[in-house]
Amino acid sequence: MNKHLIWALALLLAACGTETGTIETNSARINRVIPVVQTAQVATGTLALADIQSITYPRALEGEGRWLKTFLHDYLDYHGPLEPDTEWQGGKAIQLLFNPAMEAPEAYRVTVDASGVRVEGATGQGVFYGLQTLVQLLPNQEGDNCELPNFPFCTIDDAPRFAHRGLLLDCCRHFMEPEFVKRTIDHLAFYKMNVLHWHLTEDQGWRIEIKKYPRLTEHGAWREGEDGEPYGGFYTQDQIRDIVDYAAERHVEIIPEIELPGHSSAAISAYPHLGCTGDSIDVVTEWGVFPDVYCAGNDSTVAFLKDVMDEVVQLFPSTYVHIGGDEAPVSRWEECDKCQARIQTMGLDHEHALQGWLISEIGHHLAGHGKTIIGWDEILEAGDLPETAIVQSWRGMEGGVEAVQHGHPAIMSPTSHCYFDYPLSSTDLPEVFAFDPIPTGLTASEAALIRGGECNMWTERAPQSVIESKIYPRLLGMSEVLWRQDSTARDYDTFHRALEAHYPLLDHMGVDYGFEQVPVSFSLTPDEESLSLNVLPVWKEIEVSWIKSDYSDDYSEVTVDSIPLDELHYDVEGVMGFSVQAEFRGKKYPELIGIGAANHLGIRADMSLKSTPSPYYPAGGENALADGRWDPLQQFRAPAWQGFNGEDLVVEYDFGERIGIGLVSASFLEYTNAWIFFPEKVSLEYSEDGEKWFPLLTGHNYYTWNEMGYTWRQRKNTADRMEWEEPQYRGMYLWGDPAKALYTRYLRLTAKSMGICPEGHPAAGQPAWTFADEIIIKGPLR
Ligand code: TNX
Fold this sequence. Notes:
binds ligand TNX
C-alpha cells in the first residue's frame, strides 16, 4: 500500500469511506483533536502536504523541527528539507516560530492558509504542542475518497488549564523495558501530558542504579519470581540519562520517586543495617504494606538517603523529587531504641513526628540542591513539612484541600478517578472524564495552588504486557480533564466522537489499548414472585456469551450451564451466578464479567439500613443488601459489597405480615491487607411488633470459602489472629434450619464491627472496615 495512505488510513477509518464516502469537513477535523482545542476559526480550503517544501525553525526550535520531520517522514513518507529560518528562501513551509507575546508558557497558535502553516509559541513546549495538534489535523479517510495528506485552513489558539499533567508509572512491582518507557513518553506527549512520575523504588524491587550502593540493584532489583528464578531488572544511570533526554525532547518532565520511609523493603534487603532490626529480609514477593521501613534513628540510614539523593539529583534535571511518604507503618520505630532516642533528643511527641523529622531532613538536603519535594498526602500528618513541599492527594481529595489551606501546592490523584490499576468496574473512562481536580469549596487563592493531576499506573497486577490496556483509552480522558480550560463545557458524547477517531491512530502507533467501560451491565428487577436478570451490552455491537451457575445455600457451586447466545434475560431462582464473556472490535474483554443474583424474601421486605455506608463503597445504595445482587468473586471493589468504616452494621426488615423464615445468611469479606475484617460478631433478632426484640443467634463462627480451593471450613474469629497476608475471602454467618420455620414479621441483623484494626496489624488502631454482601433470607422448605 502507498505509504501516504497508511497514515491517512490510520488517521481515522471511522468517519468516512465505509458508509458515506464523504470527506471530513475542516471543523470535524478540528473537533477530533484530543485534548480539545480552546478556540478555533475554521476557513474553507486545505493545504496539501505535498506542496510544502520545507520545515523552518530558529535554532532554538531545532528539536521540535526534528520531531515534526521525523513524524512526517515515518508516517507519511514526507521528505521535505529542514532548515533553520535564516536560510529559508521562501515558498510554502511549515514555520515554527517563537512568539514572545503569547503569555502562557505552554500556549500555542496554529495557522494554516494558502501561504503555509505557522506554529507559534512563547516556548519550545508551546510550539511542540502546536505540532501535536497539527499532526492530529491530518485527514481521516479511506477508500476511493482518500485525499492526500493535507491541513485544513484554520487558526487555533490553545493553552492548558493545569501546569502539571502527569502519569505515574510504577516500574517496581513490575520492571518495564527502557524502550517501553520511551514509547509511553511518546504517547504522553502526543496527548499533551507533560509529567512522567517515575516510581523507582519499592518493597518488591529497587530499579535505579546508585553507584555508591551497588547492592541496591545487584541484589535489591531482583525478587524470587513465580518460577523460583530471580525476577526484576533495573535502569543503569546511562539508561536513565538517555530516557530523561528522550523525554525532554518531547517536553515531558521526569519526576523520580524515591520512597521513604516506607515501601523500602528492597533497599533494606540489600543493606539490612538500614532497617531498625538489622535483620536480613528478602525482597518482598507479595503486595501490600510491610513493616520494615528505614530506621529514622540510625544516622547511617539518614546518610544513606542523602547519598542516594545526591546521585538522583544529578540524573534528573526536574526541580522536583518525589519522596513518597505513604503507607509507612511505625511498628518497628516503636520498638527501636535508636528511633526512640531520636524522638527524645529532637523533642518529638510521637512516631509520626519522627516521619516528619526524617522528611524534613531529606527535604532540606534536597533544597540544598535546589530541589523541591513532593510527597503523598500522609506527609501532612507528619508535621514539620518544608514550606515549599507539594502534596499529592491520593486517599481522596481531602489531602489536597488540607495542603492548599496550609499554603502547600497540591497535585490531585484521588483513588476515585485516577487509579488506572483499578479495573474498569471501579474507574471507567466516563468517570475519569468527569474528574475535576479542583475540590469544591476552595477560595480562589487556594484553588490556584492546585497544580494539576496525575493518573497513577500502579503495577501490582499489571506486568508490562497489560499496562497499555489499562492506561488507554483512560489517559485520553485524563488529558482532556487536565488540559481543557472550560471544564463546564466538557461533554462526554462529544469527547467520545473524537475518541472514536483516535482508535485507528492508536492502532497505527501500535498501542494495545483496552476497553472504555465494562462492556455489559446488569439489571435485576424483582416482582411479586420472580427476579429477572437482564444483561445490557453498553454498545449494540458487543458480542456476549454467558454461563449460569447454581449455588447451594453455602454458596458452593453446584451446576453450570451455558445460556444461548441470543438470550439476554434470565428468571432467577434461588442463588445463582452468571459469567459473561464480552467481545468488541475483535478484542475480548480480559476477564469474565460476573454477577451473583439471588431471589429471596429480603428483596420483597421493607428493609431499613440503620448504619451509614462509606460514600466510597455504597454498593447499590440504601437497599444494596436486599437488592438481589451478590458478588460471586471476593473483591471489595465489586459493586455488591457495601463498606462501613469502623461502624457497626444494623439492618431491620419488616415483612408486612408474619411469614415463615427458614434460613438467613449474611456474608462479609475479610482482606486484612486492605484493613477489612470480618465483624467481631453477628446477631440476629426477631420481633412481632417492631419494638420488643428477641435474640435468635449471636455468632462468632462463620464459614469461609477459600479462594484457593473452593473448600468450606469453619473457623473461629478471634481478634488476636495474625494472618495479615490473607487474600480476600468471604465469611458467612448462617442462621436457621430450613426444615423448621420461624414465623415472624420483623427481623434485625447487627454486625458488630472490629472498630479498629487490632494490635499487631500494620494499621493497628486505625478504623477497621466491615464489608457486607447481600443478606439472603429464605423461606422454609415446603
Ligand atoms: C496505594 S497510592 C499505594 C501504592 C499501591 C496502590 C495500589 C499510594 C501512595 N500508595 O503503593 O500500589 O495503592 O492501588
